[in-house]
Amino acid sequence: MEDPKTRQLFLQVLQKTKAGRITWTPTANESEFLTVLPGELALLISKTYEPDSYGNPDEQAAMVLRGEDGELLRVEPGDTFNWSEFAELYELARRKALGVDAKVDKLLGDLARM
Amino acid sequence: MKDHLSRHWGDWASVVGLVFSFLAFVFSKRASKAAREARDSVLQKSFGQDMNDANRAAAEIVYFVSMDRGDMASFRTRELMSQTSYFIARWKDKLPEASKKNLVKARQQLRTIQQKISARAVGDMSPDQKSQLSRACQQVSSIFSEEHGNSIRATDKEV
Asked: pTM score > 0.80 for this model?
């Protein structure tokens, strides 16, 4: 079931991440990234590979909104946002959290001097 | 002059009264400002002490993880998570937005650290997983250290 408010939240986060107005941080889980939103809320985005009943890796992804009292929202790609939209946000968050662009820029500079 | 004073003593008394009232108003304003500054300074020191204690606890978590002492790390993480919730509730009206965000980030990092430690013994983690865990613990320690530093700086400015 599509939840318009959650979709709006997702699109706002995607847009503000693209604009560089939301900063992402790595967490203790290598495939999970965190940002803090106004109102003392934490937003997590994660992608994991759990084995299915046949033992094959099954991709699981979620966007989770947490407040003081715990989990407020947990949304998986589906009706509210599709896999491709989720993958875009996840990749942007990952790149920002790990500082990928800055590191690649530095590497390119170093390579140019070699 | 005497004649003028004897005729207008009431007017002069009013003027003198007005001057004294104005002076009393100015001094009471100053006293109130000084009291407010003293209270803010005490609160700032109290917040600084909280952040210093939290920084020590976070440094202990970093140490326990490095020694593969998941049980102790887990115990301290749960403790610090509760304390951080208390700090957020206690100081939310006094702190700038950036500090509040920092504390919420620390609490969420601690929650993820706790999940990670509960799911697998630190000693059984791959080097990459352990390194990721250590970095998250280190980040929590840095957050409390930064907030402690901010608090000291704010106190120094008042002196």
From this structure: no
